[in-house]
Structure formats: structure tokens, C-alpha cells
Design goal:
Layout lengths: L25 H10 L1 H4 L1 H24 L14
């Protein structure tokens, strides 16, 4: 098992920055980036990349090959 503790760097719904909301500062985000294993530990990232890419490709292939849900399934498990 691999646990990686990090923080998001961009806003929740987009690719922009959200510093104008004043609930975190650029300095806070920069501090997280300075200890983010996905940024700092490039050897680990490179070692894991082939397996991750295979897993992502398999998931995409499964999703693309799966039938679209019917109308009766659209709200299944939605609370």
C-alpha cells in the first residue's frame, strides 16, 4: 500500500487558482508542493508510471466497452 498525503493545487472545478477566496495562500500551496512526493520523489513516480498507465488504459477500455446505463439505472446509488 502506498499512502500519499498532499493537497490540491488548483480550484475544485477548473484549472484556475482560487487564492481570491482567501482560505489559503500561495505560500501554503508552495509549502505543500515542496513536500509533495509526486513532485519531489521523481524516481518513485517514474517507477510507478508504467503500472499506473496500464491500469488507467484498462479502466478507460472497460468504460468505453461498457454499455451506457439505462434510464432506470441513472439514479442508482445516488442519495
Amino acid at each position: 500500500m502506498l499512502e500519499i498525503v498532499t493537497s490540491r493545487y488548483k480550484e475544485h472545478v477548473g484549472v484556475g487558482e482560487d487564492f481570491h477566496f482567501n482560505y489559503r495562500t500561495k505560500d501554503d500551496v508552495d509549502a505543500w508542493k515542496g513536500r509533495d512526493p509526486l513532485i519531489v520523489d521523481t524516481k518513485l513516480v517514474e517507477a510507478l508510471k508504467p503500472e499506473l498507465e496500464r491500469e488507467i488504459a484498462a479502466a478507460v477500455a472497460f468504460a468505453e466497452a461498457s454499455p451506457a446505463p439505462g434510464r432506470t439505472e441513472l439514479l442508482t446509488d445516488v442519495i
